[in-house]
Each structure stands twice: as structure tokens, then as C-alpha cells.
Amino acid sequence: MEDTPTISSLKVKKRETKLVCNVDELINVSFTFVGEAPGPVDIIYLKRKRTVSSDSGQVEVKASADQGEAAMWDQAAKPTDHERGRTFMEAISEKYSPENFPYRRGPGMGVVVVPTVGPQGSPMKDRLNLPSILVLNGSGISRAGDQVEIAAFCAHVMELDLSHNTLQDWKEISKIVSNIPNLDFLNLSFNPLAGVALGPGRGEAFCHVRRLVLNNTQVSWDTVFTLTRDMPELEELFLCRNKYDSVPAATVPCPTLRLLHITDNSLQDWEEVRKFGSIFPSLDTLVMANNNLASIQDSGGILKSLFPNLRSINLHNSGLNRWEDIEKLNFFPKLEEVRLQGIPLLQTYTNTERRSLMIAQLPSISSLNGSVVSAGEREDAERFFIRYHLGYPEEELPYRYHCLVTKYGKLEPLAEIDLRPRCRAQVEVHCEDKVVQVNVRLDQTVAELKKQLKEVVQLPTTHMRVYYIDKDVCSAFGPEEMKYSTRALHSYSIRDGDEILVVPKTK
Predict the structure, then answer these.
(1) 118 vs 126: CA distance, rounded Å
(2) To the nearest 10°, the Cα dihedral for 32, 38, 39, 42?
(3) Which of 80, 259, 280, 410 is deepest in the core (most CB within 10 A)?
(4) CATH number of residue 396's parent domain
(5) What is the pLDDT of residues 256-272, one digit of tens each?
(6) Backbone angles phi, psi at 400, to 5 degrees
(7) Is residue 457 included in any domain, yes or no?
(8) What is the model's pTM?
(9) What is the Cα–Cα distance from 51 to 31, expressed in whole angstroms?
């Protein structure tokens, strides 16, 4: 005999296939109701996805101990406002409201923007104190919001920082940028843009931006090249920490770019780096620190045409390990500034040697590692370079050595002069018929010297008069009496071979 259930229960029947996200699915529920009045009963169940949400269905109870099975639809989850993130306009409304950002006069403090027309139900305040530089980093922004409001409030904005948000749709980013006509600087760093394609025509929204920052976005090269193609005024591009280890060829060069900042990637092969020369033919500054570039492989003739306008290069913490690579930097015809710290080649040198040898190897640079190279420092460095290589076999002498010998001639090694003050001297002590060699400390006083001589001449200090005899000038000036007990011996310029004359006092 089948047992009569004593408690109510509800069980979702197991499915052979997994539920699919964002799709309505039919699920079956087995139920038992005990002690319930006949009529409809609501069933509420929880779904655990990234967050916990609830759905509901309804069954009809026909008896007080009813059992059965019901089918109900699992509705495709719609993201909540919290899950979708904040809009650009919501972040502006909160940060730059009069309560949070009081209006003050003065340059850079912005302007009061009063919208003339706003959409029905607009969340905006009656007025906002918006500066021309908007900083909205880490504001949870994932959407643009109302474009009419963006255009009304941001027409004067020139710089926009949207770093550390959750923007992952170029369509939303384009909505923001296209409604800020005077935008000059845009920072999108640390937004999750990996694998997100820039749709056709979206790049045109960025046409007036001159400085673009895409650090740690993992944005693809295809997207970068789409942007550079559609940004005719782009001058500065930041692509740091994007895990690049290669550079594809671009179909359309970007002739306006002056600065490329691409540190902390994995561009180790010069074959990849050299492509920047054709992609950005007007490149003035290349910052490639922390890429572990192994070497510069092209010949001098190719390097001259590869980066014809390069004025500054930063290769901090690269893998360069040969002086030949440093010499090749001389083939960039306009190079003036070089930064080269933390490379294996220089690890065995002292700080002075590193700077002097580097300056001598790079005759055209005017700044090394951020410090100006003066004419005097250059001459000292070049002379140091010649003397540093004295004694090297002829076959090991670098090309630059011969150039500098032509300029300065073959220099002799510098004389080693010890300018430290002497601390002791070996002197002859004369007392009547006695002559004794004594080593005296020059940092002691005349009184202390007398105490030292007391044992030598067998006289109490109160019964002796002491004279200093300079062996070089004694014949002209005679002995100098050491009258002052507190005077230090080094003030007499005592040297080895000088004499101390001790004369007993007469009663």
C-alpha cells in the first residue's frame, strides 16, 4: 500500500540538457501539497546564476493531499539596472551636482550648465557645475545614457577620463564621444574591451580626439588600426599593458601620430618593433620600456629611413646586451633624447662609467635618462671613453674610440692624486745629543704631542719647549716654536722627514 504523504514538497525534475542563458526554457516541477485548501497555489523558486533571482509559476490544488507534476516557463533573465551598471549621465549627475561639486570662479573650474530642454523623466538636476575636464574613473559606468542630455551638458568638455569602469561595448562609448564635439583627450584604460570589435562607422565618433589612452584594455590591433584610420587628428596613443607580442601590418598608416607609449608589453623581436616606422611615419617619441627588446637588428642604412622623425626613445628595462645595439641608435637622424636604464649591458659598470660611456657612444643626444648633457660633461665623457679603452687589443677597440682619438689624440692615463688629509707622519725628534724616529698622529694637539714625547726625551711636559723644523724651508725661516697647547699638528703641514726639536727649559 502506497504511503500517504504527510508534508508538502516541491522538486524540479532533472534535465538532460543544461539551461541556455537568455533563452526561455520549459521546466517540469513535481509537487506534493498536504493540508492546503483547494485552489491555485503560487510556486516561487530561486535561480542561482551570477546573482540570485526568483521566478514563479502556479498550480491548481484539487485536494488536501494532492500530488502531481506541472510544466512552467523559465523566463530568460533580464539584467537589473545594478547588473547593467550606471550610465554616463547618472555618474555626471551624481559627481557634478551643485551639492557635490560647488561652483567656484577661476580658470579650470568649469562652467554652470543649465539644460534648456530635457527629456521626460530626466534624472538630471536643474543645473550642473561641469568643468571642461571630467574625471569619472571608477564610477561603474557601462552605458552612455540619454544622448540628448550628453550633448546638452558636455558641449564644452575637452578632456574625459573614463578609466576603471565597465565599458565593454564600443557602441556605448561611441554614443558618449560623438556627443562631445570638443573632446581632445579620452582615457579608456582598464575597461574590459578584449575581443570587442569596433563596428563599421563607430571610429568616426573619435575623429576630433588627439590623445587616446587604451592602457590595459587588451584591445585588439584590428580595433586600434580602425581607430587610427578614422582619427585624422590623433597625435598621442597609449597602449600599455595590453599583452602584445607582435604587430600586424596596417593597411592604412597614421601620419599624424607623434607619440606612441607602449610599455609593459612583450615586444621582444625587433622585426615587430620596426613595423611602427611604416605605421606611424611621423613618430617623434617612442616609449617602449619593460618590453625586453633583445636587439636592434637592422643595418644603419635601413634605420635611417625607418624612423626619420624619431626624436626620443625609451628602452628602459629592455634586453639590450651589446654595445653594437647602442651604436645603432646613432643612425636615427633626429634622435636627441635616450632613456636606457636597467639593461643587461650596463649591469657590471659603476654609475659614473654607465653615464660616461653612454654619452660618448651617442654623440648627437642632448638628454640621457632625463638629464641634460652639457658640453662640458660631453667632453669629459669622451675623454673618459678614450682612457677607459687604453690597453684594449686593437681588434677589440670600438669604432667610436677611433673617432674620439681623431678628435682628442691619444690621451695618457690620469695621474692618481690622493687629496685626503694625512693622518700620521714619521719625524725626527732631536733633544740635545739624542735623535729618535717617532711616528706622530697629526690630528692631536701640541699638548698631546708633548705627552707622547715625555717618554722619548725623559722630560716632564712642563720642562720642555718644542720647535717644528720644516726640512724644506728651515734654512730660510728657522725653527717654529709650537707655543699653543690646543693647536692641532696638521695645521703645521707636518710631513715625513720633518724634525721636532725639544729644548729643556732652564730654571
Answers:
(1) 10
(2) -30
(3) 280
(4) 3.80.10.10
(5) 999 999 999 999 999 99
(6) -65, -30
(7) yes
(8) 0.67
(9) 26
